[in-house]
Amino acid sequence: MANSMIGIISYNNVWYVDSGASNHMTSHGKWFEDTKDLKTPRFVEISDDTTHPIAQIGKVSLSMQDGLIKYLKYVFYVPTITKNLVLVNQIVEQGLQVTFNPNGCFVDDMKTQWKLITKGKRIDECSPWMSTCLK
Prior knowledge:
mainly beta, Cathepsin D, subunit A, domain 1, seven-stranded mixed sheet, globular
């Protein structure tokens, strides 16, 4: 889960876009809409080898820079994690494109003829794609 991260700021909260995560996930239960309980218990394992139970699955709204509201679907509610993670593959499946280059990360919406909806720049020197914040 500690692979290639950038961050999207929505409502002053950072979501890290991660190409290695298993799923979108957050610990903020109040952000969810249309939640569902899991039929069987599931867990996520993070980079420090700890396991965290998934409480529910639902969708979360994000306010983009272009003023539109986008929804992350199939988000895991994991009360014990400390970061909000967005999986690149899930973003792409929702009709968005994620592009990385030396200037940062860019998210475009194919439904609006590839209109840029948010972008980011690196805020940390730890690696080329870690801790890039979209503003």
